Amino acid sequence: MPRFTALPDLALRTLGGSVVAASDESFAEKESLIRPGRPGFQAETFGNKGQVYDGWETRRRREPGHDWAIVRLGLPGVVRGVVIDTAWFKGNYPPHASVEAVAVDGYPSPAELAEAAWAEIVPRSDLKGDAEHAFEVTDESRYTHVRLNMYPDGGIARLRVHGEVRPDLSLYDGLSLDLAALANGGRVIACSNEFYSAPDNVLAPGLARHQAEGWETARRREEGNEWLVIRLAARGIIRLAEIDTTNLLFNAPGWVSLTGYDGEREVGLLARTRLQPDTPHRFRLEGDEPVTRVRVDIYPDGGLARVRLHGNLA
């Protein structure tokens, strides 16, 4: 898959995305488009609407036009690439699809979105059945919604909208916020080891339900320790650090330390501190120097469920 797939999926349901409207969902529900994970399938599993599909499927269209679904991005941002996945749709996939995007402030209704000025970010393109189709996007605009068009009808399993998060941080003027949160524009930009799971997981919203929803390294057999570097949502002063080892019973790190950076300047935030397994830890930080990046060192290896760095914009 192309490099853009390493970026967050801005539309993912677990990151707040929602399929707010669709022209039709007679055979399979529109909400499946943004579910996490690979689409599943079990042959000869029939319901009242026919074979059960883990995807979005419309009826056979007998009139002119095409089907569409509008997705509100859970994380507004700049779209770098789109993946349209027709997994398991072999005789009922659409032969063509396109994607449009729009930025609308506030909380628009489907009717208001229908009247908005949409921009095409993926032109009408050929699709194959039971395949992933990756399309790079070069548009630099910030968007809040996308519209998936399929021509004329059929089934699509998943829609992935990868990009860079661009939230409206003006909402936090005078308030504190989690400077590391993916939803606020935080991102893991470097990591020593991601053998079992992706480091960006530690910045995800909510609580990790199991080990795979956090970050976990391989067992380290040499000297040293594992680490990751977080680019903060914006330059800020960190007041409270949360280091969560929930679900990590026998593979939690023994210790953690935090170091901040502002350009080339290094700021000690938290000295090497002992951790307990399966425990949310909260540490007050006494410094008042602003930073733009934070290095999280774990000793010697293991995993973290979540990292929260609460503070104020500088």
UniProtKB/TrEMBL annotation:
The keyword Repeat does not apply. HAMAP family: Allantoicase (MF_00813). It holds the Pfam family Allantoicase. It catalyses: allantoate + H2O = (S)-ureidoglycolate + urea. It is an enzyme of class 3 (hydrolase). Belongs to the allantoicase family. Pathway: Nitrogen metabolism; (S)-allantoin degradation; (S)-ureidoglycolate from allantoate (aminidohydrolase route): step 1/1. The keyword Flavoprotein does not apply. This is Probable allantoicase. Its EC number is 3.5.3.4. One of its GO terms (molecular function) is allantoicase activity.
